[in-house]
UniProtKB/TrEMBL annotation:
This is Shikimate kinase. Its EC number is 2.7.1.71. Its cofactor is Mg(2+). Monomer. Binds 1 Mg(2+) ion per subunit. Substrate binds at D38, R62, G85, R142. The keyword Phosphoprotein does not apply. Mg(2+) binds at T20. It is an enzyme of class 2 (transferase). ATP binds at G16, S17, G18, K19, T20, T21, R123. It comes from Comamonas terrae.
Length: 169
């Protein structure tokens, strides 16, 4: 079913909340374009995000993330935008997300996400220490920011990615 939206549809949430899978599903369902901000960042920096974190540090990564997000949200063609989990940290990103997109927060508990990510080795912020504790900390820090920026909050606990996507749709 082709949908005509006046704004992009941005998905926000913790790493592992399903932004990529659900974003792809929604874009297919609505015959829209899909962009993954992390992929666009990797195209710009020419290496994996985890390597960039290791060599350049998180602050530099956040600057690049803000540039890429601004560029993607400024495109006239309306797309589904899967953001990185930390995109809400900068106030300027939150303003842009709200101005240029309808924002959906994919909310899932840190326990559920930790189960889903058990074998994931790609996410630099979860490589340090105990991943569950890290997710609990990120949730405390970011849940208010995701809620602040969101037009809709969709709870995904106990649901498959397809079920969450149907709920969002
Ligand atoms: C980050 C999440 C990652 C990626 C980067 C930083 C974060 O994206 O942008 O590693 O701060 O939560 P995903 O949420 O797609 O894993």
């Amino acid at each position: 079913m082709t949908q005509v939206f006046e704004k992009h549809i941005s998905l926000v949430g913790l790493p592992g909340s399903g932004k990529t899978t659900i974003g792809r599903y929604l874009a297919r369902r609505w015959s829209m374009g899909y962009v993954d901000v992390d992929v666009a960042i990797e195209e710009q920096i020419g290496c994996a995000i985890r390597d960039f974190f290791a060599t350049e540090g998180e602050e530099r990564f956040r600057e690049v993330e803000a540039e890429v997000l601004a560029r993607l949200l400024a495109r006239p063609e309306k797309t589904v935008v899967a953001t990185g989990g930390g995109a809400v940290l900068k106030p300027a990103n939150r303003e842009r997300l709200r101005a240029h997109s309808t924002v959906v927060y994919l909310s899932a508990s840190p326990h559920e996400i930790a189960r889903r990510l058990q074998r994931d080795t790609q996410r630099p912020l979860l490589q340090v220490g105990n991943p569950l504790q890290r997710l609990l900390d990120l949730h405390v820090q970011r849940d208010p920011l995701y809620r602040e920026v969101a037009d809709f909050v969709v709870a995904g606990n106990g649901l498959s990615a397809t079920q969450v996507a149907q709920r969002v749709a």
